[in-house]
Amino acid sequence: MNTFAPGQRWFSSAEPELGLGTVLRLAGRQVQIVFTGTGVVRLYALGSAPLLRAVFRPGERIRVGGQDKTVEHAELLEALIHYTCGGSVHAEGELDAEQPVSQADSRLLSGRVDRNDQFEFRRECLQRRADARAHAGWGVLGARIDLIPHQLRVAETAAQRRPPRLLLADEVGLGKTIEACLITAQQLASGRARRVLVLVPESLVNQWFVELLRRFNLAFAIYDEERCESLEMTEPQANPFEDEQCVIASVDWLASHDKRARQAIAAGWDLLLVDEAHHLVWTPEFASPGYALVDSLAARTPGLLLLTATPEQLGLGGHFARLRLLDSARYTDLDAYRAESRGYRALSALAERLLEGLALTTEDMATLAGLFPGEEEALVARLARIAAGDAYERDSLLADLVDRHGTGRVMVRNRRAAVGGFPARVPHVAVLPVPEDPTVLGRLRAEFAHDVGDTDDEPAHDYARDPRTDWLLGILEAVAPAKVLLLCRSRAKVQALEEALRLRSGLKVARFHEDMNLLQRDRNAAYFADADGARLLIASEIGAEGRNFQFAQHLVMWDLPLHPDMLEQRIGRLDRIGQRGDVNIHAAAVAGSAQEVLLRWVHEGLDAFRGVLADGRELLRSFGAELLSLAEQDSDAREPALTELIVRSRDKHAELALAIAQGRDRLLELGSRRGANDGALLAALRDDDQHAAMDDHALRLMEAFGVHNEALAPGIWLLDPEHVTVDGFEELKNGPRMATFDRNTALGRDDLLYLRADHPLLLSAGELLISGEYGNAAFLVDDSLPPRTVVMEAVNLIECIAPAGLDVERYLPPAPLSVAVDTRLQVRPEFSPGERARLRAGDRVFDLSPQRKVLAALVPPMLERVRTATLELAQERIDAAVAKADMLLSNEIDRLTALARVNPSVRPEEIAKLEKERDELLAILPTARPRLDSLRLVASTDFLQLRR
User: Does residue 447 share a domain with residue 544?
Assistant: First the structure.
């Protein structure tokens, strides 16, 4: 085990780009290291820390105060090293964070070299890492998602914001969660966010955990009271929310515990996500505990994403409450916002008429004149061209109107009708005859009471004699051989129904519930997806959260949730973009049962099986208590009142639907469809999907560490870690895993790892290889070279030690820079070993120990010439990176500055943040320096005859 002491300097072998770190303190079995060059603090376990002691020997170079010096003598005094250089003594604490360190030269000088193919593969890994880091899709290359344009546009838009503060308000089923996860993954990958807090209703905690992990490879920690108490038992004075970087918690739990709320606020976050934000209640006189909590967090957190499916249509006050969370300086007065909104409605109506080619009204002309003061003549000319049918001019004017839209910069609103690609919903509703068994209705009443929360005690379920079982078997026979997804409320129901079907049929059935671990669920989902697998998947409400089964077109509702939003979530398991057929929704209830009341209200009153309910919460609030009261009554007594309730519900639904339609903001919808770099991210991800060379590279990378691979089927591989001897393969710790490199295959098989360049498994393997000695020193005999010829190939990485939030690798990716020099110290820019020499080398490892004296004479001057030549070439790349950063950020600053003149929603601090980022980058990029990574000596055949 390494011995640590405060003040010592260490390198991270896993993250060499962090630079030289300093030991801050020892705490139990952990050591805390600060990397001052990047502002990063890491806590490592003493027994497994990936750290290397920074020790420089006489003759090696160190950097102190920006000056390179040669070490003449090194002395250890009280656990710290002191270096003598040119008569001055420097304690190791004086060393710069960036040091010219390499293991390659010492290995070559000692004659310890690797195979030629290992050197070449190392260089390939370096290049692929740099290419991936510079890719527009970095952070989401391996996202297990369909490439849906509107979702990727939202991610593009957010990536331009410093930081993103957005209200995501797409209609149900358009993937707000996916959008939020895309943004989160990009923020984490770029370093702009390190600490992320996700606040959701209790019922959605599991769904978010699965979505982030399964689709985006983001491992969040679920926090609740039990976890906090457990952490406090270990460290009573510590803030439990500082124990993890990425956290999911129930907003209701935090809001009801003052101590936990204070701890969460004090912990500090870079990005806050709040789902179902419309549940947060605010008026000028009152704020709910949940709203007050989010308000406090939002004021202290740079990035904020609020998710809601019901924006301003169902209440301007509630919409204002969410906007003030995003920008409290901009949205300060509700009455002023009401007046402002009237202007936006006029603007929206104007846009509607432009889109539909209708003549503009006098009011429209007055509105335009107010928006474009001093441009009356130009405006008249533009309108004349539009009237003549100039579509380009119309779109140009609409774009200008979008830029002037007050909330367009802080809110995204996509509609299903505009996005398209959704299937039709076909309901199949049945009221089953009253059974002869007199106990059935009583059992159903007890089941219903538990389903709607009247009791916590779930009754025992016996579905062998339940009328719904016969109904289900009839459906399965009628739609054979189609796949069928059945959803029910609880794990107990899943197990009871599986047992009943086992007794009554020989059907292949898979189950899915919350007590199964993720791997078990993945395997059962794969069994259901397989053409020869289960025809029926029985899933509980919670177990199915975060899972989609677009390959199936039949959904059976064994029971119905009381809340219409939960019903919509169930239907959304099949009704997604990418569904290839109509979604058939099967629902039934026994006549006279409590379930019949709920079924009729949902189907006849809300028409919830045919279309998306945007007003389900309002309808439940209006009629829920009355509905439950009727469910308790006998069927004959309740019928007139039930019919009347259905009529009133239908009328209220129509009234709310009209209000929503009238509240539509066409300009906002247009703005949501116009991305910052419209389509660039989509095109980049599609292009990456086509690179089949990724497959071979990834498999070779795995094999370098003993992970055996075997092709199981087209596009599917088995990765077996049996012979792995190093740590770092977390995804394989439980044994072999199946994997794919194909997006479509991954979407249909949750049990497969989806491997792209930014997958944690490949990142871990790549870092293990690059941070170690693998291939960093090699020797090759080339018989095509003239006698007494030796050429040194040096691979350098240009590294810039900077705070992670600056994302310097976007402008200066760590691409390998190769330089070749010969023994005459001449640079050989076109040098490449002969193909025959490379093939003949095979897996041969040369023993150069007999040539150590020769190497000691040859290598140092060649290394010095490599260093000077590399500095010249590196400067060209550094200058290009500076120019790129200046151009991109200056253009964005100019665009936002111009936009701020016509749109008050452009926050001054956003422009200031970009200016600060540009200035810091222009100052720090020129400090980048090349670092020697690997060396290869290529020699003529007579070199091996040389001796000491």
Answer: yes
Q: What is the CA radius of gyration of the chain?
A: 33
Per-residue confidence (pLDDT) for residue 2, from 0 to 100: 65
Paired sense of beta strands 51-53 and 61-64, if any? unpaired
Nearest to 809 by CA among 189, 44, 64: 189
C-alpha distances in angstroms, 357 versus 366, 388, 394, 665? 18, 10, 9, 17
Q: How far apart are alpha carbons 637 and 633 in whole angstroms?
A: 7
Do 786 and 935 belong to one domain?
A: yes
In angstroms, the Cα distances linking 813 to 12, 131, 519, 760, 924 are 19, 8, 36, 19, 14
Under a CB-based contact definition with an 8 Å cutoff, are residues 874 and 798 in contact?
A: yes
Q: What is the C-alpha to C-alpha distance for residues 185 and 188, in angstroms, rounded to an integer? A: 5
Q: How many domains does the chain have?
A: 6
Give the C-alpha separation, 803 to 797, whole Å: 18
CA 895 to chain centre: 27
Asked, for residue 232, whether it belongs to a domain, the answer is yes
Q: Would you state the pLDDT for residue 676?
A: 47
- Cα distance between residue 826 and residue 58, in whole Å: 27
Same domain membership, residue 159 and residue 192: yes
**Which among 583, 613, 643 is the end of a domain?**
613
- Closest to 592 measured CA to CA, from 562, 643, 634: 634
CB proximity list for 861: less than 8 A, separation 6 or greater: 825
Q: What is the DSSP secondary structure assignment for residue 435, as one 8-state letter?
A: P
CA angle 585, 586, 592 (to 5 degrees): 135
Looking at residue 162, the DSSP 8-state letter turns out to be S
User: Does the CA dihedral 261-265-267-271 come out positive or negative?
Assistant: positive
* d(C-alpha 386, C-alpha 368), whole Å: 14
What CATH number has the domain bearing residue 310? 3.40.50.10810
CA atoms within 13 A on the CB side of 672: 26
- The C-alpha atoms of residue 607 and residue 379 are separated, in whole angstroms, by 46
DSSP-assigned beta bridge partners for residue 748 = none
Judgement on whether residues 457 and 522 belong to the same structural domain of the protein: yes
| Chain mean position to CA 579 | 23
Residue numbers of the domain that contains 882: 116-123+775-945
Tell me if residue 585 falls in helix, strand or coil: strand
Q: What tokens were used for 729?
A: 């393969």
- Least Cα distance to 368 among 383, 355, 356, 357 occurs for 383
In angstroms, the CA 538 to CA 536 distance is: 6
Tens-place pLDDT, residues 632-669: 998 888 999 999 999 999 999 998 888 777 666 666 77
Residues 182 and 270 in one domain: yes
- The end-to-end CA distance of the chain, in Å, is 37
How many Å apart are CA 205 and CA 225, to the nearest integer?
Answer: 14
Give the pLDDT score at 757.
94
What is the full DSSP assignment across 613-656? -SSHHHHHHHHHHHHHHHHTS-HHHHHHHHHHHHHHHHHHHHHH
Between CA 429 and CA 431, with CA 430 as vertex, the angle to 5 degrees is 135
Count Cβ atoms below 10 Å from residue 482 Cβ, excluding itself.
14
* Sign of the Cα pseudo-torsion (930, 935, 939, 944, in order): positive
**Helices 316-326 and 289-300, axial angle in degrees (round to 10):** 30
CA 540, CA 382: separation in Å to the nearest integer?
58
Q: Check: CB of residue 442 under 8 Å from CB of residue 434.
A: no
What whole-number distance in Å separates Cα of residue 534 and Cα of residue 479? 14
Q: Residues 159, 160, 163, 167: is their CA dihedral positive or negative? A: negative
Q: Which residues of the chain have a pLDDT value below 70? A: 1-2, 13-14, 59, 100-102, 310-315, 403-408, 543-546, 662-667, 670-678, 947-948
Pairing of strands 51-53, 9-12: antiparallel
User: Which letter does DSSP use for residue 214 in this model?
Assistant: I
Q: What six digits make up the tokens of 357? A: 């080619």
List phi, psi (to 5°) of 616. -60, -40
H helices of 480-615, in order, are 491-504, 518-529, 564-571, 594-600
